UniProtKB/TrEMBL annotation:
Gene3D superfamilies: 1.10.287.2250. This is Uncharacterized protein LOC113513694. SUPFAM superfamilies: Cysteine proteinases (SSF54001). The gene is LOC113513694. Residues 1-18 form the signal peptide. It comes from Galleria mellonella. Keywords: Signal. Residues 30-88 form the Cathepsin propeptide inhibitor domain. Pfam families: Inhibitor_I29.
């Protein structure tokens, strides 16, 4: 069984060499990724899609590292590497970054033990720090906004406005509230919750986001 350090070495060398990732050569890294970040998927289809996203993001990072080759700069994937940023933005209105710039790293002698040890330590520290971040973030899917609004109206005993324009404004303000909650929850701020003011427009055009 491969240890963390051995996998980290393989991971680092593969990224630096800018290989083209496929299911065949990325599955082991994906399994390592799932273990380190405690990733759980609802079903086989979701896991398959997550693997596809993971491979896409690995190749993006490899292409970035190829562009900065010779500048001693290293890009690495992060805990969101199994996600599609565009799809995530559409569902939750959150800009997601699936990789990070680790800054200046001396890659002139990739076989050197000190270089590998220092780089692995940076990756390990980031992983251990990220493990404190809850995977069960409560986010509202904007694709389900109509049903969420209906549930909200029923929960707080609200009645729809008589004019179509007013109904639309209240709905869009509700959606903006969902966006605000999502963005705060994603940052770890749970002080904002869905209350009976979620559809109330306090300022002109406050329903835009």
């Amino acid at each position: 069984m491969l240890t963390y350090d051995m996998l980290a070495v393989i991971f680092l060398i593969n990224i630096v060499n800018a290989d083209i990732y496929t299911v065949e050569n990325a599955t082991r890294l994906f399994n390592f990724f799932k273990t380190k970040y405690n990733k759980m998927y609802k079903n086989k289809l979701e896991e398959k899609n997550s693997l596809r996203n993971f491979i896409d993001n690995l190749n993006k990072v490899a292409a970035l590292n190829e562009k900065v080759k010779g500048n001693d700069t290293l890009y690495v994937i992060n805990r969101y590497a199994d996600m599609d940023p565009e799809d995530f933005d559409q569902h939750y209105a959150i800009s997601l970054k699936t990789y990070e710039n680790e800054g200046k790293v001396d890659l002139t002698n990739i076989g050197g033990q000190d270089i590998l040890r220092n780089t692995m330590e940076k990756i390990r520290n980031k992983v251990e720090k990220d493990e404190d971040y809850s995977e069960s973030i409560e986010l509202y899917d904007l694709g389900n906004a109509n049903n969420l609004y209906k549930q909200y109206m029923e929960k707080f005993g609200k009645k729809n406005a008589t004019k179509k324009y007013d109904r639309t404004v209240h709905f869009y303000r509700f959606v903006k509230t969902l966006v605000d909650i999502n963005r705060n929850h994603f940052k770890g701020n749970y002080t904002i919750a869905l209350d009976d003011n979620a559809d109330i427009v306090k300022e002109p055009y406050e329903y835009f986001y």
